[in-house]
Amino acid sequence: MAKWIPLWLHKLGSPPTFYRFAGAVRPWAMGLALLFGVIGLYGGLVLAPPDYQQGDAYRIIFIHVPSAWMSMFVYAVMGVSGFIALVWRLKLAEVVAMESAPIGAAFAFITLATGSLWGKPMWGTWWTWDARLTSELVLLFLYLGVIGLYHAFEDRRQGARAASFLAIIGVINVPIVHYSVVWWNTLHQGSTVSIFGHSKMPWEMLWPLLAMTLATKCYYAASLCRRARTDILALESGKDWVREIAQAEAAR
Amino acid sequence: MPMNPTRKRRLTLVIVIAVAAMLAVSLVVYALQQNMNYLFTPSQVQSGQATQYKTFRLGGMVKAGSIQRSKDSLQVTFTVVDAGGAMPVEYTGILPDLFRDNQSVIATGHMDGARFVATEVLAKHDETYMPKELKEAMAKAHADAKVKEAAAQDKSP
Questions:
Q1: Nearest Cβ partner of A202 from B1, B22, B131?
Q2: Which helix (H) or strand (E) holds A14?
Q3: For chain B, how many helices (H) and strands (E)?
Q4: What pTM was computed for the model?
Q5: Is ipTM > 0.90 here?
Q6: Neighboring chain B residues of A2 at a CB cutoff of 8 Å
Q7: What is the DSSP letter of B77?
Q8: pLDDT tens by residue, A125-147
Q9: What is the DSSP code string of B24-69?
């Protein structure tokens, strides 16, 4: 391993260390997710004022936008770990990439479903083939493709590498989803929240949105920890350290 | 960064294939930009850019005061405008909640002479959200500023 990687990060890449680390992180991440979720939903559904144009109907934004961000964020994580899995053949990177896919697919599905529910009363249609909606649908299909390809192989590590490849190629869709509203004339409006510029939303609407973003991020961390732990046990099922854990569980 | 030859080969291979795929997709996206437009504006239609399409989408703002509803049916006529053109639109059916004067709309349909007959009318909203009171305060401030401006102009000879 290269010298520039710190020792703790190097150690974290080993399955038993990550198993313990993820076990310690998971309850904290889940607790924070619940806390931010409750604060964000209360702020968004109760405290935030109605919109001048859409009234109370805009409040679905507090689910829709954080899910949309996560559907792209999880894809980026999957792409980076897929890249590490392909080049360095790190077992943990394969686990992270493959266990992220179902979570990201769920976020993409929630984005499309809530967008559809929002689109019917406001725009007048459940669905339209504009660039933003279509590219988000492609993102969902990419997730499903990665999951399907992974499970199509007899050997799980071979499957993980093939699916990682698809994940890397699909990363190009993430900027397309983000910039679709800029590059083409779409029915979907442009971005409201911008990191570097001025957000087109007052603070009393913005903070619940940011709280929900933190909630979804923490939920992803918690869910990934749990999924990765289970997967690591299956992957290392023949190893001594797994046997020790199994015996300790059986003795309880 | 010291790397063994196998990893180096894998790294190169993965990067080359990923870059090639991304280049291909970028070229497709670039090509689609020319002809993947979701809608035409009234001025684009009037300059003949939509003549090759039998049905297409017309996008623009509903001209204030142009909405006329039929008394005994769901028929509505209104004018869609953009910076350089206006187009009369006819539609029969239920309109979305946001349909009103000065709202951006997207109508799907075909040309019937100089008139656009829509089969579907969608409302487009912008990315700005604000409380109702703030919007009213801003509209008032804007109106006040205009009055002041007019007053200032009157004073100068």
A1: B131
A2: none
A3: 3, 6
A4: 0.86
A5: no
A6: 1-3
A7: E
A8: 899 888 899 999 999 999 999 99
A9: HHHHHHHHHHHH--S-B-HHHHHTTTTTT-SSEEEEEEEPTT--EE
